[in-house]
Every structure is written in structure tokens, then in C-alpha cells.
Specification:
Blueprint lengths: L5 H10 L9 H6 L8 E5 L5 H8 L3 E6 L2 H14 L3 E5 L14 E7 L8 H5 L2 E12 L26 E11 L2 E10 L8
Parallel strand pairs: 1-2, 1-4, 2-3, 4-5
Antiparallel strand pairs: 5-7, 6-7
Length: about 190
């Protein structure tokens, strides 16, 4: 239910009210190591806290979520703040949802466990030298019964991600909750090797 039920997430985003949440603190801390401009894709963007942050930093952002309430809220924040954000309402559990995204300098997946077989598809949408930033639960938090083992991101999730190189990963805590964050870079293709 936590990661895949549209009704659950619509109610959750509705209950959050009209205020924009702060961007993920780990993302903000990592920005000096990440692309400083260009295009960004925020997958499972929720109600837009990271998409809005990236757009405010000058990125041209595409934000994707399956919740109609989340999509409406991202559009509202983008309009209110005059930011360049394209909002797409799509399920990330369907292969066809990844078609026609284009290529990006920077892809963010925050607090969402993408099904591992979709990572190579996501990689196709990253420009050579571009970054994939993934952040999520390292362990099931004791204070959130909605999160299950299948929501925890592990190293094995990235086994099929052969066109990217892991540049950094870290485990960190916020209160009693443990998270893990990865930074992956798309390899440059040497035409002489082909």
C-alpha cells in the first residue's frame, strides 16, 4: 500500500494542506557535487518539494507522479512561483510510462523504491555524464507501520544498472530513521571503442 496505492497517496497529499514542504535535506547538501544547471527529472515527485527546489536553482524540471492530487499541487506551486516545471501524471510501475521523457542531466528518485528492472530504462533518459540521485529507506522505521521490507532500497536494486557508475553512497540517520543515498553517473561512450 505505501508505495503503490493511488488512493492512499491522494489522501496523504490532500491532508498535507496548501503549504510546500522543504526539499530533502540530503539533496540540498549534495548539490555542490551534482549538476549545477540543465534539465532534471524528478520521479515520484510527490507534491513537488524537490522539483520546486531544483527549478528555483535554475533547472528545467519534469516532475512525475501517479497521484492526481500531487500533480495538481506541483502545478499550483510552479505557477505561483513562476517556475519552469512540466508535470506528468504517470505510474512508475508501467514500462510505457517511461516513454517520451527525453534526456536529462539529472534524475532524482527520492523516497520511492523503483522496481529494479526499470533502472536500465531510466538510465536511457540520462545524458552521458549525467547523474542519477537515489535516496530512500535503509531499514524499516519502527515509527512508520506503512513501510514494508519491499519499500527498502538495497544494493541489489542496481544490479542491472550497467551503464552508470556509482560515485558515492552513504547511510545516514534522521532521528531514529535510517536512510541510504546513492549518486550514479552515466558513462561517456567512447566512439573509438564501438
Amino acid at each position: 500500500m505505501y508505495m503503490g496505492n493511488q488512493s492512499y497517496w491522494n489522501k496523504k497529499f490532500e491532508a498535507r494542506g496548501p503549504e510546500l514542504m522543504q526539499p530533502e535535506s540530503c539533496l540540498v547538501e549534495d548539490m555542490p557535487c551534482l549538476p549545477q544547471s540543465g534539465t532534471a527529472l524528478d520521479l515520484a515527485c510527490g507534491d513537488g518539494r524537490n522539483a520546486v527546489y531544483l527549478a528555483s536553482q535554475g533547472f528545467k524540471v519534469t516532475a512525475v507522479d501517479f497521484s492526481s492530487i500531487a500533480a495538481a499541487k506541483v502545478k499550483h506551486f510552479a505557477s505561483k512561483m513562476d517556475l519552469d516545471i512540466t508535470v506528468l501524471q504517470k505510474s512508475l510501475c508501467k514500462k510505457e510510462s517511461f516513454a517520451d521523457f527525453g534526456e536529462f542531466d539529472f534524475v532524482v528518485i527520492n523516497h520511492y523504491r523503483l522496481e529494479p528492472h526499470f533502472y536500465p530504462i531510466v538510465a536511457q533518459h540520462i545524458k552521458p555524464g549525467g547523474i542519477l540521485w537515489v535516496n530512500g529507506f535503509y531499514k524499516i522505521p519502527e515509527d512508520n507501520p506503512d513501510i514494508k521490507q519491499e519499500d527498502v532500497i538495497t544494493q541489489t536494486d542496481f544490479q542491472e544498472l550497467t551503464s552508470l557508475t556509482c560515485e558515492d553512497s552513504k547511510i545516514y540517520e534522521i532521528g531514529t530513521r535510517k536512510f541510504i543515498r546513492w549518486i550514479w553517473r552515466k558513462k561517456f561512450i567512447n566512439p573509438a571503442v564501438q
